[in-house]
Amino acid sequence: MISRGCEQCAKGGKMVLFVYGYCDQRDCFYCPLGENRKNVTDVYANERRVESDDDVLEEAHRMDALGTSITGGEPQEALDRTCHYLELLTDEFGEDHHTHLYTGITGGRENMRRLSEAGLDEIRFHPPLEQWGDLHGTEWEEILYIAREEGLTPAFEIPGIRPEAEFLEFLDEGAADFCNVNEFEMSQGNYRRMQEKGYELKEDHMSAVDGTREEILEVMGDHERVYFCTSVFKDAAQHRRRLKRMARNVRREFDDVTDDGTLVYGKTHTDPDRFVELGVPEEFYTIKTNHVEVAWWLLEEMIEEGDLEDGEIVEQYPSYDGQVVERTPLA
């Protein structure tokens, strides 16, 4: 790994904080944002819609976050929110909580200073595609040096649309610390516009675009400070490992944690008194308003032996909303 932020992401330890959905200066055809994120003013911590500062802190604690990745939008409101949440996270977790910002604008010295004073560690710039190859001598070169002077680690993070040797030049010149290249992907939010541009999905793949990966690796892949982040790795690291961290933190004694980071337990509408009659230890079940949740293997065994009539095995995400993945009836 080439940056602390990437190392934390690989462990599933990076909370993703989306602060704003409007971009005043850009309309990228490859923008992956879906309807619930694009052109909205909502804030999200991972998949959780934020209503208060406590929601952000609760989400960070829920996954035992090592750091936070901040993204979303370009206007002043996005900057103000970013600084607010940086200060919030620093106050709660201290300076060891690593933070990085992904941004599509340069911002200028005053904003770099504000971000640094608020606690930002690393800033990753995403210049407009049409300027790739002609960034030297522009504000995009200047901001790299300004960011460093203000105490930030400057870097690039770009979509893997095509190879561009100029990013390697910035690395060799010492202007940027690293360049993170994300595998080019199609999503629900950009699929139509991507197809209009002639891009197609890679065969047998849910999101990766065909043909771009090989071209980029040929030109940029050998540089020691270029990291190519595949869509498969992002799914495994940013999502699955994050879920596992959550699951370990929130699981009850009788919950099973799967390899995908989901929780599995049993559920039945049997009268709770029946569990007392059967002598079931209290650590193996919990009573809810209109049902009982219990170790799935114990519920299965009790139904097979005729002690209970029916129930189901529930698999759900360990996220705040507890979205159910699958229900398996037992009778």
From TrEMBL:
<protein>
    <submittedName>
        <fullName>Radical SAM protein</fullName>
    </submittedName>
</protein>
<dbReference type="InterPro" id="IPR058374">
    <property type="entry name" value="DUF8061"/>
</dbReference>
<dbReference type="InterPro" id="IPR058240">
    <property type="entry name" value="rSAM_sf"/>
</dbReference>
<dbReference type="InterPro" id="IPR007197">
    <property type="entry name" value="rSAM"/>
</dbReference>
<dbReference type="GO" id="GO:0003824">
    <property type="term" value="F:catalytic activity"/>
</dbReference>
<feature type="domain" description="DUF8061">
    <location>
        <begin position="261"/>
        <end position="330"/>
    </location>
</feature>
<dbReference type="GO" id="GO:0051536">
    <property type="term" value="F:iron-sulfur cluster binding"/>
</dbReference>
<dbReference type="Pfam" id="PF26257">
    <property type="entry name" value="DUF8061"/>
</dbReference>
<dbReference type="InterPro" id="IPR040087">
    <property type="entry name" value="MJ0021-like"/>
</dbReference>
